[in-house]
């Protein structure tokens, strides 16, 4: 069996022509995906683009109407149990039992993965430690904060040390500060060689975590590439500076114009200008420093999903849910 | 098909960390452990199965007993198996209601993404339910004994009668699960469940002998499997013929199980 696995899988996830219809709605319209071992694929798209449907098919929770997929070398339709052994799934909402404690949740999953009581308890302890939940371990998860629940949910999907992990919008609804925590966890996973499929509505998140990004729209992949390639398509970043004292705004604007060579846009106490690379940031920081200007905000921003979509589709309504044909 | 594959062990574990016996039953038992833990944290879930049989016995025996049998003691001897069965059957409704709400929680997505049989979460829930049914049966009998009920058979026979009620309820609870899977609202599951149970329980020989009823009703009462269950349990507790009624009751419950358990599992899988 080992030899077939090697032959079939230089990709941890490989899907071709996935199609799924719900009544009148074509949720997936011929999606191809490939994720090499140990890499992170970011699936970027608005609500209703088909991201979750694709994940549910790859996690054997749904069957496609057409198309095929292998995960960790196993066909999702013919060998669902083998796929389930190889994957971990973390959904948009935390899939934990609210009446049970954090520890009980993890032990339950371990027992269902055929660990003995002792081994399941050991694994739970490790994960609680790793996710900073040791203190809350014996409290019912109903009392957990949103961030703690997400962490426990992720921990539960790691009990079996899966080769492939699906993270379906892992940070949607989380505070920006909690978002960074989650990113660190994902980075740690990839360091251990886990393959990750991450869906998100934020280009920033895909850019921070993914080796490659597939952009979904209306059940199709409309763009695929590395984050840099994608950013080259949708345009560069925006440098934004907000001086602590509004009096300095004119100076800031002049500085930005000189460094970047383009006229900044001035709006509500801040100045922003499109930049090609991050080199401009260093020059601006040096210039601000030399002039002794204090700032409250200095940011290099990626275009948001709306702008990405506008560039890729020419439509201005990425968040609009439409029935496809 | 996929069962022929050697299971991939959890990496980083050694053989001593793994259990391999009867995965199907073991997974169901692990999940029933989850349900029991949850029940223990909500003791109010036991109110209906403890108070209801006690209350019904008092009402039926002391309010109606004299009128029906001439004296309360004779009626208690007659009605106790009926009350026991009625309260157990009514408590089968709750599993459908509970699963219908439970399944909307994300934790069922977790179960579906694990390499366990699709039916394990349902079977696990039914095993835990047996605890509630067992409590109802024991409480009915204990309350009856306190009120003066006396068995006139051997302890083995009494135990057999109690087990028979338990087994029948376990089979019937699959109907409740199936309803819970196909009906959209948990509230409607309860309504439908009770609606179906009224003709099954009251339209039987539980509370009065069939001879006293009009002909059309007698026809139904004689078909009703609950009548056969009641008569069999009556025989096992207070003496009388058992074999024929017990056979019919066992066969019907097996048929109910064979029809509704697969339907329930299929509906559950579709809900994914």
TrEMBL record, chain B:
Location relative to the cell: Cell membrane; Membrane
Membrane topology qualifier: Multi-pass membrane protein
Main location: membrane
Membrane spanning stretches: 46-69, 75-99, 120-146, 158-179, 191-210, 246-265
Superkingdom: Bacteria
UniProt GO BP: response to antibiotic
Keyword Cell membrane: yes
GO cellular component, as recorded: ATP-binding cassette (ABC) transporter complex
Pfam families xref list: ABC2_membrane
ABC transmembrane type-2 domain: residues covered: 44-271
UniProt cross-references to PANTHER family, sorted A to Z: NODULATION PROTEIN J
Membership in a protein family: Belongs to the ABC-2 integral membrane protein family.
Name under which the protein is recorded: Transport permease protein
Species this chain originates from: Aeromicrobium terrae
């Amino acid at each position: 069996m080992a030899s077939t696995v090697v032959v079939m899988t230089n990709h941890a996830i490989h899907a071709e022509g996935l199609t799924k219809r719900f009544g009148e709605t074509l949720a997936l319209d011929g999606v191809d995906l490939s994720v090499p071992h140990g890499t992170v694929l970011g699936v970027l798209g608005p609500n209703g683009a088909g991201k979750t449907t694709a994940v549910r098919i790859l996690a054997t929770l749904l069957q496609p109407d057409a198309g095929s997929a292998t995960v960790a070398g196993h066909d999702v339709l013919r060998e669902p149990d083998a796929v389930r052994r190889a994957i971990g799934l973390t959904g948009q909402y935390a899939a934990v039992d609210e009446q049970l404690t954090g520890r009980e949740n993890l032990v339950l999953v371990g027992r269902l993965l055929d660990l003995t009581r002792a081994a399941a308890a050991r694994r739970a302890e490790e994960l609680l430690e790793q996710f900073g939940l040791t203190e809350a371990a014996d409290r019912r998860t109903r009392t957990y904060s949103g961030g703690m629940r997400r962490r426990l949910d992720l921990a539960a999907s790691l009990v079996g040390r899966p080769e492939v992990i699906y993270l379906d919008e892992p940070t949607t609804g989380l505070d920006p500060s909690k978002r960074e925590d989650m990113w660190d966890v994902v980075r740690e996973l990839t360091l251990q060689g886990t393959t990750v499929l991450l869906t998100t509505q934020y280009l920033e998140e895909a850019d921070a975590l993914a080796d490659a990004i597939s952009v979904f729209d209306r059940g199709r992949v409309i763009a695929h590439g590395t984050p840099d390639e994608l950013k080259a398509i949708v345009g560069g970043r925006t440098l934004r500076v907000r001086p602590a004292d509004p009096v300095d705004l004119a100076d800031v604007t002049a500085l930005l114009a000189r460094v970047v060579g383009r006229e900044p846009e001035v709006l509500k106490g801040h100045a922003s200008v499109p930049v090609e690379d991050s080199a401009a940031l260093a020059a601006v920081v040096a210039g601000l420093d030399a002039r002794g200007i204090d700032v409250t905000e200095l940011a290099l921003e990626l275009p948001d999903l709306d702008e990405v979509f506008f560039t890729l589709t020419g439509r201005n309504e990425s968040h609009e849910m439409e029935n496809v044909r | 098909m996929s069962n022929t594959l050697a299971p991939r062990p959890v990496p980083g574990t050694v053989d001593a960390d793994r259990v391999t016996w009867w995965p199907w039953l073991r997974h169901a038992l692990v999940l029933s452990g989850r349900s029991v833990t949850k029940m223990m944290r909500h003791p109010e879930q036991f109110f209906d199965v403890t108070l209801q049989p006690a209350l019904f016995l008092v009402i039926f025996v002391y309010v109606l007993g004299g009128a029906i049998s001439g004296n309360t003691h004779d009626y208690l001897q007659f009605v106790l198996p009926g009350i026991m069965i009625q309260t157990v059957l009514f408590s089968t409704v709750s599993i459908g209601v509970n699963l219908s709400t439970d399944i909307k929680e994300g934790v069922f997505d977790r179960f579906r993404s694990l390499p366990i049989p699709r039916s394990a979460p349902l079977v696990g829930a039914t095993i835990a339910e047996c605890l509630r049914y067992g409590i109802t049966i024991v409480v009915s009998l204990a309350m009856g004994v306190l009120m003066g009920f006396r068995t006139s058979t051997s302890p083995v026979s009494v135990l057999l009668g109690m087990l028979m009620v338990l087994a029948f309820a376990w089979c019937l609870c699959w109907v409740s699960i199936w309803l819970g899977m196909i009906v959209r609202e948990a509230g409607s599951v309860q309504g439908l469940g009770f609606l179906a149970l009224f003709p099954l329980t009251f339209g039987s020989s539980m509370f009065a002998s069939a001879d006293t009823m009009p002909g059309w009703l007698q026809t139904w009462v004689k078909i009703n499997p609950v009548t056969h269950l009641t008569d069999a349990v009556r025989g096992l507790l207070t003496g009388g013929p058992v074999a024929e009624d017990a056979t019919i009751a066992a066969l019907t419950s097996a048929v109910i199980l064979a029809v509704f358990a697969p339907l329930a599992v299929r509906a559950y899988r579709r809900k994914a």
